[in-house]
Amino acid sequence: MSEPVQRFLGSGETLARLHDRARTLRRLQEVLARSLPGPLGEACSVANLKGDSVILIARSGSVASRLRHMAPSLTAALAAEGFAVTRVEVKVGVTVAPQEQAPRPSRTVGAAGRESLEKLIAQLPEGDALRASLQRLVDRSRPE
Protein backbone atom coordinates (compact mmCIF):
# COMPACT_ATOMS: atom_id res chain seq x y z
CA MET A 1 0.00 0.00 0.00
CA SER A 2 1.09 3.52 -0.51
CA GLU A 3 2.31 5.58 2.42
CA PRO A 4 -0.61 8.10 2.49
CA VAL A 5 -3.14 5.25 2.67
CA GLN A 6 -1.17 3.62 5.49
CA ARG A 7 -1.16 6.92 7.38
CA PHE A 8 -4.93 7.31 6.88
CA LEU A 9 -5.71 3.76 8.01
CA GLY A 10 -3.65 4.18 11.15
CA SER A 11 -5.07 7.60 12.02
CA GLY A 12 -8.27 6.72 13.89
CA GLU A 13 -8.85 4.08 16.51
CA THR A 14 -11.63 2.38 14.54
CA LEU A 15 -9.69 2.44 11.30
CA ALA A 16 -6.60 1.15 13.08
CA ARG A 17 -8.57 -1.82 14.45
CA LEU A 18 -10.03 -2.48 11.01
CA HIS A 19 -6.57 -2.32 9.47
CA ASP A 20 -5.19 -4.75 12.07
CA ARG A 21 -8.11 -7.11 11.48
CA ALA A 22 -7.57 -7.07 7.71
CA ARG A 23 -3.86 -7.70 8.18
CA THR A 24 -4.60 -10.66 10.50
CA LEU A 25 -7.06 -12.19 8.03
CA ARG A 26 -4.57 -11.71 5.19
CA ARG A 27 -1.84 -13.47 7.22
CA LEU A 28 -4.26 -16.30 7.99
CA GLN A 29 -4.99 -16.64 4.28
CA GLU A 30 -1.28 -16.81 3.48
CA VAL A 31 -0.68 -19.52 6.11
CA LEU A 32 -3.70 -21.44 4.85
CA ALA A 33 -2.44 -21.28 1.27
CA ARG A 34 1.00 -22.57 2.33
CA SER A 35 -0.50 -25.34 4.47
CA LEU A 36 -2.75 -26.84 1.81
CA PRO A 37 -1.92 -28.58 -1.46
CA GLY A 38 -2.05 -26.20 -4.46
CA PRO A 39 -5.53 -26.75 -5.90
CA LEU A 40 -7.12 -27.11 -2.48
CA GLY A 41 -5.51 -23.89 -1.28
CA GLU A 42 -6.94 -22.06 -4.27
CA ALA A 43 -10.45 -23.47 -3.70
CA CYS A 44 -10.93 -21.98 -0.23
CA SER A 45 -10.44 -18.74 1.63
CA VAL A 46 -10.48 -17.36 5.16
CA ALA A 47 -13.80 -15.71 5.95
CA ASN A 48 -13.33 -14.71 9.58
CA LEU A 49 -11.56 -15.30 12.85
CA LYS A 50 -13.84 -15.44 15.89
CA GLY A 51 -12.11 -16.06 19.17
CA ASP A 52 -10.34 -19.39 18.82
CA SER A 53 -12.21 -20.41 15.64
CA VAL A 54 -11.23 -19.71 12.08
CA ILE A 55 -14.04 -19.80 9.51
CA LEU A 56 -13.16 -21.00 6.02
CA ILE A 57 -15.25 -20.74 2.87
CA ALA A 58 -14.93 -23.61 0.40
CA ARG A 59 -15.98 -23.40 -3.25
CA SER A 60 -17.72 -26.78 -3.21
CA GLY A 61 -18.94 -29.50 -0.91
CA SER A 62 -16.06 -31.81 -1.78
CA VAL A 63 -13.51 -29.12 -0.90
CA ALA A 64 -15.37 -28.46 2.35
CA SER A 65 -15.30 -32.16 3.23
CA ARG A 66 -11.58 -32.39 2.59
CA LEU A 67 -10.92 -29.28 4.69
CA ARG A 68 -12.93 -30.72 7.58
CA HIS A 69 -10.77 -33.85 7.48
CA MET A 70 -7.64 -31.70 7.46
CA ALA A 71 -8.82 -29.51 10.38
CA PRO A 72 -6.37 -30.97 12.96
CA SER A 73 -3.36 -30.37 10.71
CA LEU A 74 -4.64 -26.89 9.84
CA THR A 75 -4.99 -25.92 13.50
CA ALA A 76 -1.46 -27.19 14.11
CA ALA A 77 -0.11 -25.19 11.15
CA LEU A 78 -1.91 -22.05 12.31
CA ALA A 79 -0.68 -22.55 15.90
CA ALA A 80 2.88 -22.90 14.59
CA GLU A 81 2.48 -19.47 12.99
CA GLY A 82 1.31 -17.89 16.25
CA PHE A 83 -2.46 -18.03 15.85
CA ALA A 84 -4.39 -19.30 18.87
CA VAL A 85 -6.83 -21.34 16.81
CA THR A 86 -8.33 -24.52 18.24
CA ARG A 87 -11.28 -24.96 15.90
CA VAL A 88 -11.78 -24.79 12.13
CA GLU A 89 -15.30 -24.16 10.78
CA VAL A 90 -15.86 -24.83 7.10
CA LYS A 91 -18.76 -23.42 5.13
CA VAL A 92 -19.60 -23.84 1.47
CA GLY A 93 -19.79 -20.58 -0.42
CA VAL A 94 -21.97 -20.83 -3.47
CA THR A 95 -20.94 -18.59 -6.31
CA VAL A 96 -23.43 -17.78 -9.01
CA ALA A 97 -22.03 -16.94 -12.39
CA PRO A 98 -23.65 -13.86 -13.90
CA GLN A 99 -25.98 -14.70 -16.72
CA GLU A 100 -25.34 -13.05 -20.01
CA GLN A 101 -28.25 -10.98 -21.14
CA ALA A 102 -29.59 -11.67 -24.57
CA PRO A 103 -29.13 -8.76 -26.94
CA ARG A 104 -32.20 -6.62 -27.33
CA PRO A 105 -34.09 -7.29 -30.52
CA SER A 106 -33.80 -4.52 -33.03
CA ARG A 107 -37.02 -2.63 -33.63
CA THR A 108 -38.26 -2.34 -37.15
CA VAL A 109 -41.06 -0.19 -38.45
CA GLY A 110 -42.58 -0.90 -41.83
CA ALA A 111 -42.86 1.77 -44.49
CA ALA A 112 -46.59 2.25 -43.87
CA GLY A 113 -46.09 2.49 -40.11
CA ARG A 114 -43.24 4.97 -40.51
CA GLU A 115 -45.36 7.12 -42.82
CA SER A 116 -48.30 7.08 -40.36
CA LEU A 117 -46.03 8.02 -37.45
CA GLU A 118 -44.47 10.88 -39.39
CA LYS A 119 -47.96 12.23 -40.25
CA LEU A 120 -48.96 12.04 -36.59
CA ILE A 121 -45.72 13.75 -35.53
CA ALA A 122 -46.42 16.60 -37.97
CA GLN A 123 -49.88 17.14 -36.43
CA LEU A 124 -48.62 17.38 -32.84
CA PRO A 125 -47.48 20.75 -31.46
CA GLU A 126 -43.76 21.58 -31.15
CA GLY A 127 -42.30 20.75 -27.74
CA ASP A 128 -44.96 18.13 -27.02
CA ALA A 129 -43.63 15.14 -25.06
CA LEU A 130 -45.55 12.64 -27.21
CA ARG A 131 -44.13 14.21 -30.36
CA ALA A 132 -40.57 13.89 -29.00
CA SER A 133 -41.14 10.26 -28.00
CA LEU A 134 -42.60 9.31 -31.36
CA GLN A 135 -39.75 11.06 -33.16
CA ARG A 136 -37.22 9.06 -31.10
CA LEU A 137 -39.10 5.88 -31.99
CA VAL A 138 -38.91 6.68 -35.68
CA ASP A 139 -35.26 7.72 -35.47
CA ARG A 140 -34.16 4.59 -33.56
CA SER A 141 -36.10 2.07 -35.58
CA ARG A 142 -34.77 0.56 -38.73
CA PRO A 143 -36.92 0.39 -41.84
CA GLU A 144 -37.93 -3.09 -42.98
List keywords for this structure.
GMP Synthetase, Chain A, domain 3, elongated, single chain, alpha/beta
3D architecture notes:
The radius of gyration is 30 Å and the shape is elongated. The chain is about 55% helix and about 15% strand. It has two domains: about 5-90, DnaA, N-terminal domain (GMP Synthetase, Chain A, domain 3, 2-Layer Sandwich); about 110-144, no CATH class. It has helices spanning about 5-10, 15-35, 40, 60-70, 70-80, 110-125, 130-140; strands at about 45-50, 55-60, 85-90, 110, 140-144. It has about 140 residues and is of the alpha/beta class.
CATH structural architecture of the largest domain:
2-Layer Sandwich
Got a strand count? 5
Classification by helices and strands: alpha/beta
Q: How much is the radius of gyration in Å? A: 30 Å
Pfam family, one: DciA
InterPro entries: DciA-like
Protein name: DUF721 domain-containing protein
Organism: Pseudazoarcus pumilus
Give a quick precis of the structure.
Helix content is 55%, strand content 16%.
Question: How are the secondary structure elements laid out?
Answer:
Blueprint: H1 3-9, H2 13-35, H3 38-42, E1 44-50, E2 53-58, H4 61-69, H5 71-80, E3 87-92, E4 108-109, H6 111-123, H7 129-140, E5 142-143
Parallel strand pairs: 2-3, 4-5
Antiparallel strand pairs: 1-2
Helix pairs in contact: 6-7
Pfam families: DciA (PF05258)
Protein name: DUF721 domain-containing protein
Organism: Pseudazoarcus pumilus
